[in-house]
TrEMBL record, chain A:
This is Multiple sugar transport system permease protein. It comes from Actinoplanes philippinensis. The chain crosses the membrane at residues 31-53, 95-114, 126-147, 167-192, 213-241, 274-294. It comes from the Bacteria. It is a multi-pass membrane protein.
Automatic annotation (TrEMBL), chain B:
It holds the Pfam family BPD_transp_1. The keyword Signal does not apply. PANTHER family: ABC TRANSPORTER PERMEASE PROTEIN MG189-RELATED-RELATED, SN-GLYCEROL-3-PHOSPHATE TRANSPORT SYSTEM PERMEASE PROTEIN UGPE. It is found in: Cell membrane. Its main location: membrane. PROSITE patterns: ABC_TM1. Gene3D superfamilies: MetI-like. Keywords: Cell membrane, Membrane, Sugar transport, Transmembrane, Transmembrane helix, Transport. InterPro entries: MetI-like, MetI-like_sf. This is Multiple sugar transport system permease protein. It comes from Actinoplanes philippinensis. The lineage of its organism: Bacteria, Bacillati, Actinomycetota, Actinomycetes, Micromonosporales.
Length: 304, 268
């Protein structure tokens, strides 16, 4: 994200040029020694699994039977031909778009509200941020009780929060907005505070109204913060699992089944086929990479 | 600048955010049909929770153990790694740093399917240690990045003067640099704790022995008990127990947390 801003530091080894070769090699060894735990972790728990998932995706690999040999490209065709695959893709995309638009719109509004420091905005900031301290699973369980006809304080409304596909989607979006709005507000607030007061002063002197200032000063200068939020939000939504697993179980009638739920179901919930789950995981990884590259291009393109 | 109508609107918005938490806390001790707390106010739901299967003590212990191990591993690995990346030049440094950050780009689910197989082979199936190691790996991109910029922000003279005074790199790290990067360590530790305490899908995939489940999984499973009838009272109590340490930590460290965000990782 902000990699480009990390300054190159020459480090302790950039001593006087007179240093001998041996003295120059020692910091390299010391450096490796300190980096060794990181390297070990990355090798065992990240690189190996990535290679393994590639292997599994082209193998007939059952949950209990283990590896039964290559079968490429059967896993991929099985996954794509599975009757719930396209509905899950479509639902995940719809959910991602709805969540990102609502969440970022509200977070921006909230960031503008609490922009200035005062006791009142301090209270507002804390209130908006407290839900972000909860885990997504805890928040989902909370809303599960909040939405259930037996325990809901909204029982008098006579609304079924999770009963129809549309209601289930919006109820889940409400949960996600509640849980994450404060977090994105904080990220946008960082961006807002990076805009110097002089710029606003100049806009005011040029006779810009509040709306014009927002449209032509705030929004363009906030672009990199908005880009970061969009990428985080799209990635998080594309990989949605906890909220649907706990709140709707993919229902009613598999209408809220997301891609990651489908991976889980292939692997453990009835499917018991790790090969297919691995194949779908690889497809999700590819989709995520493409989505992020497109977003980087799109958001950077506007800047030019 | 906030006039009365604006105060009403913004205050209402704030209440909307606070309401679910307040409701869950109140509902967990209030009378409710179909729960252990039928008549009057009291802690019946917490008693249900306490006596569920292995007992809430066991699940709390599991969650605490996993969270503390994750925090410890994350702090050690990212402290040493951040030091290496910030202060030393060595072959492969940039590649290793980029690969560590690349963990962020890969979905949890993509890694969990092979990790399930891998941990079995390492003899770490159904183990809290295995779970903590995996959760540490998920923390590494943020933690390493954070510690690297923390070390880079330390004035270079500080480390150099320690070395002139005859400190080796390890003693320089321990005596001079660790105090200087303490804010970074607190942020990294806090994030690792919250992530490990709250993670759901990782233990869902990696832990199948119900006596080893961390709390979120136990509370989620508890819903489907007693002939499919959900005990919402106990669920609310579970949510309160899950949320309480997070909210307390958040409020206690809020100033630090917000400032860490504002000044550190996301600047630029």
């Amino acid at each position: 994200m902000t990699l480009t801003t990390v300054p190159e530091r020459s480090g302790l080894d950039s001593g006087p040029a007179a240093g001998s070769r041996a003295r120059r090699r020692r910091p390299a060894l010391t450096g490796w020694a300190y980096a060794a735990p990181t390297a070990l972790f990355v090798a065992i728990f990240f690189v190996t699994p990535i290679l393994l998932v590639g292997r599994m995706s082209v193998s007939d690999w059952g949950l209990f039977t283990g590896d039964r040999g290559l079968n490429a490209p059967e896993n991929f065709t099985d996954v794509v031909e599975y009757r719930l695959f396209w509905p899950a893709v479509w639902f995940t995309v719809k959910y991602t778009v709805v969540t990102t638009v609502i969440l970022l719109g509200l977070a921006l509004l909230m960031a503008l509200i609490v922009q200035e420091s005062s006791r009142w905005t301090g209270f507002l900031r804390t209130s908006f941020l407290v839900p972000s301290a909860l885990g997504l699973a805890s928040a989902s369980l909370l809303f599960y009780a909040l939405y259930s006809p037996q325990s809901s304080p909204f029982g008098f409304l006579g609304v079924s929060f999770l009963g129809t596909p549309t209601a289930a989607l919006w109820s889940t979006v409400a949960l996600i907005v509640w849980r994450f709005a404060g977090f994105y507000m904080l990220l946008l607030l960082v961006g807002l505070q990076g805009i110097s007061a002089d710029v606003y002063e100049a806009a005011r002197l040029d006779g810009a109204g509040r709306r014009q200032t927002f449209r032509y000063v705030t929004l363009p200068l906030l672009r990199s913060s908005i880009a970061l939020c969009t990428i985080l939000c799209v990635t998080g939504s594309m990989l949605a699992f906890d909220q649907f697993y706990l709140l709707t179980k993919g229902g009613p009638d598999n209408s809220t089944l997301t891609i990651v739920q489908l991976i889980y179901n292939f692997a453990f919930f009835g499917g018991n086929h790790l090969g297919r789950a691995a194949a779908l995981s690889i497809m999700v990884l590819a989709a995520l990479l493409i989505a992020n590259v497109l977003q980087f291009r799109g958001l950077r393109g506007k800047e030019g | 600048m906030f006039r009365t109508p604006q105060k009403v609107f913004t205050g209402g918005l704030a209440l909307l955010f606070l309401f679910p938490l307040v409701w869950a806390s109140v509902a967990s001790v209030s009378p409710q049909a179909g729960s252990a707390q039928i008549g009057g106010w009291g802690f019946g739901n917490y008693r249900t929770l306490a006596n569920y299967q292995a007992g809430i003590g066991q699940y709390l212990l599991n969650s605490t153990a996993v969270s503390l191990m994750t925090v410890l591993f994350t702090l050690i690995v990212s402290l040493l790694g951040g030091y290496a990346f910030a202060q030393f030049r060595f072959p492969g440094r940039d590649v290793l740093f980029l690969v560590t950050l690349a963990i962020l780009m890969v979905p949890y689910a993509t890694l969990l399917i092979p990790l399930y197989v891998l941990l079995n082979r390492l003899g770490l199936q159904d183990s809290l240690l295995g779970l903590a190691l995996v959760l540490t790996m998920f923390q590494l991109p943020f933690a390493t990045f954070m510690m690297r910029i923390s070390f880079e922000a330390v004035p270079k003279d500080l480390a150099e003067s320690a070395q002139v005074d005859g400190c080796g790199s390890l003693r320089t790290l321990g005596h001079v640099l660790v105090p200087a990067v303490r804010p970074g360590l607190i942020t990294v530790g806090l994030f690792a704790f919250l992530a490990a305490w709250n993670d759901f899908i990782t233990p869902l995939v990696l832990i199948s022995d119900s006596a080893k489940m961390p709390l979120p999984l136990a509370v989620a499973n508890m819903r489907q008990q007693v002939m499919g009838i959900v005990d919402y009272g106990a669920t609310e109590a579970g949510v309160v127990v899950l949320a309480l340490p997070c909210v307390v930590l958040f409020l206690a460290l809020q100033r630090h947390y917000v400032r860490g965000f504002m000044s550190g990782a996301l600047k630029g």
